[in-house]
Amino acid sequence: MTFDSPRSTEDPPEATMDGDTTGHDEAQRAEEDQRAAPADEVIGVRQGMFGVRGTGDTSGYGRLTRTVSLPGSTPAPYGGYFDEIVATLQDALPDNGFGESIEKIVVFRGELTLHVRREYLPRVARALRDDAALRFELCLGVSGVHYPDDAGRELHAVYPLMSITHNRRLRLEVSAPDADPHIPSLYSVYPTTDWHERETYDFFGILFDGHPSLTRITMPDDWRGHPQRKDYPLGGIPVEYKGARIPAPDQRRAYS
């Protein structure tokens, strides 16, 4: 009687044919992708979950620590039609106008964002609108963002643009320091930004130079502060409204 010899519990190494470098190529591509991935720009550290300070931890997240970061610059090639947009804009801004105007290029979650130095914003927007190969005719609005930890760049304005001719989209992002919150208005390039810039000024305090009527659009004219900034109180304070004073929620009269 014969018995089969016991098989090893370890699988034998797979035979590799001469010239088969599939595994090596995949590892090399992964390493290259890791090197090409943009490093995030860490601008601060956030403690807890809800930003509450000076009170006991009742949420269970008091010891949570998270970094506040922004996407870093993306190296070329950018993919899709993004490369064509960047190359065309470089030609539309001669004499190193592109290098002077654009701080960085970010491709994040399938969106192309051009970070523009604020003094060159109208020039870049006009080139994007007028060049036949670009034709970004429509500005979809203005969004304000407040990053208190981004020293010297606390206030950001984001302009999403769309080319109806070529069915393409991109975003322009401009920053300004809290101590000098001035950004050139795009009203002369995109008149539809009239109301959007007023709203961004109202809620974030960004001053759009050259705007024909930069007044509040939602809050009363005599309102103090800008409610969507991160440093604006969330509640529990007296609120002034047209000369009247509304007490804090914990000081109001109860009728029950």
TrEMBL record:
<dbReference type="InterPro" id="IPR010218">
    <property type="entry name" value="NADH_DH_suC"/>
</dbReference>
<dbReference type="InterPro" id="IPR037232">
    <property type="entry name" value="NADH_quin_OxRdtase_su_C/D-like"/>
</dbReference>
<dbReference type="GO" id="GO:0008137">
    <property type="term" value="F:NADH dehydrogenase (ubiquinone) activity"/>
</dbReference>
<dbReference type="GO" id="GO:0050136">
    <property type="term" value="F:NADH dehydrogenase (quinone) (non-electrogenic) activity"/>
</dbReference>
<protein>
    <recommendedName>
        <fullName>NADH-quinone oxidoreductase subunit C</fullName>
        <ecNumber>7.1.1.-</ecNumber>
    </recommendedName>
</protein>
<keyword id="KW-1278">Translocase</keyword>
<keyword id="KW-0520">NAD</keyword>
<dbReference type="GO" id="GO:0048038">
    <property type="term" value="F:quinone binding"/>
</dbReference>
<feature type="region of interest" description="Disordered">
    <location>
        <begin position="1"/>
        <end position="36"/>
    </location>
</feature>
<dbReference type="InterPro" id="IPR001268">
    <property type="entry name" value="NADH_UbQ_OxRdtase_30kDa_su"/>
</dbReference>
<dbReference type="Pfam" id="PF00329">
    <property type="entry name" value="Complex1_30kDa"/>
</dbReference>
<keyword id="KW-0874">Quinone</keyword>
<comment type="function">
    <text>NDH-1 shuttles electrons from NADH, via FMN and iron-sulfur (Fe-S) centers, to quinones in the respiratory chain. The immediate electron acceptor for the enzyme in this species is believed to be a menaquinone. Couples the redox reaction to proton translocation (for every two electrons transferred, four hydrogen ions are translocated across the cytoplasmic membrane), and thus conserves the redox energy in a proton gradient.</text>
</comment>
<feature type="domain" description="NADH:ubiquinone oxidoreductase 30kDa subunit">
    <location>
        <begin position="114"/>
        <end position="236"/>
    </location>
</feature>
<dbReference type="GO" id="GO:0005886">
    <property type="term" value="C:plasma membrane"/>
</dbReference>
<comment type="subunit">
    <text>NDH-1 is composed of 14 different subunits. Subunits NuoB, C, D, E, F, and G constitute the peripheral sector of the complex.</text>
</comment>
<feature type="compositionally biased region" description="Basic and acidic residues">
    <location>
        <begin position="21"/>
        <end position="35"/>
    </location>
</feature>
<keyword id="KW-0813">Transport</keyword>
<keyword id="KW-1003">Cell membrane</keyword>
<comment type="similarity">
    <text>Belongs to the complex I 30 kDa subunit family.</text>
</comment>
<keyword id="KW-0472">Membrane</keyword>
